From TrEMBL:
WD repeats lie at residues 258-299. The lineage of its organism: Eukaryota, Metazoa, Chordata, Craniata, Vertebrata. This is WD repeat-containing protein 20. Residues 414-496 have a biased composition (Low complexity). SUPFAM superfamilies: WD40 repeat-like (SSF50978). It comes from Anabas testudineus. The keyword Acetylation applies.
Amino acid sequence: MAAEGGGKEMNEIKTQFTTREGVYKLLTHSEYSRPNRVPFNSQGSNPVKVSFVNVNDQSGNGDRICFNVGRELYFYIYKGVRKAADLSKPIDKRIYKGTQPTCHDFNPLTATAESVSLLVGFSAGQVQLIDPIKKETSKLFNEERLIDKSRVTCVRWVPGSESLFLVSHSSGSMYLYNVENTCGTTAPHYQLLKQGENYAVHTCKSKSARNPLLRWTVGEGALNEFAFSPDGKFLACASQDGFLRVFGFDAAELHGTMKSYFGGLLCVCWSPDGRYIVAGGEDDLVTVWSFSDCRVIARGHGHKSWVSVVAFDHCTTSVEDGDPPAEFSGSDEDFHEQIHFGTGRDRANSTQSRLSKRNSTDSRPVSVTYRFGSVGQDTQLCLWDLTEDILFPHLPLSRTRTHTNVMSATSPPSTGQNTTTVSTTTTSNPSGTNGKDNVSNSSSGGNPANSLPSSLPRSNSLPHSNPAGGSTPNSHTGSSSSNSSSTTTTTTKGNSIMDSSFIATGVSKFATLSLHESRKERHEKDHKRNHSMGHISSKSSDKLNQLSSSRTAKADVAKTLGTTLCPRMEEVPLLEPLVCKKIAHERLTVLIFLEDCLVTACQEGFVCTWARPGKVGLLSSQNNPANSPSGTVV
């Protein structure tokens, strides 16, 4: 508890952090917020969200940013690491009465310097289509709330489409809309199209074309977030019932499921190549799920409260070729016949296409070190590396090498769909043995699941060493100049209880997670202690129903725990964060990786830009220092 009770240092807001590729620095001149820069009173408000789009402006400054704060919605030119933010001149500002914006999304296909299509979801259930450049409101969907009266939790344009978009609600339903259709003056009537385990898809019965085109009912409770795969063919849904469900979007068929360790899932994202999905939620963990094997391959423990956002870094990765075990050939070939790694938005990733072609023809997989990040209600930013010792636990570590390098992105950074330029290093790697346990799934092509090694990897950075001044896992020194030889390990009460399979060299370097069921109670205490503010209305709206269903819920947990849906803690590798830093005073709600920076936002309404290593010099030294907020930078 010594490190965790560090007092002033623990509560200090960090303005930079170090990884193997260098130092990330907060650019105070590039902070976006309400023009008065006054912290927003976030009690009872919806989470601050941020959306980016690139309008292909000939001047080279085509990035645009949209963010909501309370009842307000702002639209600015985003200058990133290049110039200081000018908050006095928003392109568009809107203040809503009676409802609040909850989420938004740009259509990158139709964006130009003269016009953009922005969808905005609201707390009362409506969806608005606006053009903040022309300052026009095109249409309002679900205006009379005849389709759904609950809060909009997520809105996304369907990849590759100029007119179709998908909307999820806290009711647990999703609706497919067409911007060309009206919503009608009466409540829609539905006809069952497809039904499966805990989901159903209905079409709208109508003599004329009207919205919604489809209604999905998924799981129980709120559908908190969904994300399309990079090729647009699959849809991952994170629900309040704790389940991740992955569907084939066009066929509306369930591909696979995963269950959180406990509590609801709040966020979800795909790896750039579509192979892995990361989800986070109320169990304070990030969970990595394999798309091809339909199983959990790792969990990450670094947050002390609910995980709000997870996102992959498209620009920081490494790739190397190697001779795989023979067992991989079938699963990779079958997998890549189903997935073609295009973005679906006319920005095909040449690297992903190369990987797909190589794997499907030569049956030789390419091992990738994935970087992803997470932010939570504990006000902390965590960065994680998903390395080869986790992805391929049966390959000898001594014969495999992974390196994390900063790669240059080829697509416009503001779309949030950066593609990656990857350097390839050929490595001699004799064929090894692989696990032969199979996970049965009708859509997975009979892909073999890797059986767990006798000694599970404890960290995603075991093969690497931190450079001088680098951050250690769960270290709260908060300074880039901290001495890496003096490792500060953050532990919580009960965290030192370890399974015998984890007792190995280097244990003192990593914080551990209790494998006992009593850990759940400690998590719940952590939630209360770390000002968790659940914004999921279905979680707290009906306490009587929660009490009456508590026995059933416990029985369901007992049924799934220890299965492929929800492995026990000791059954999968446990990742430790490369970086875990407190960067805000209020809960964090945004994490977006761009080409030359990463963007975070907190519930006070401050949108912060963190320059990647080597990019901080792009900000002009002639910027007016008056634009910098006074006091502590959040």
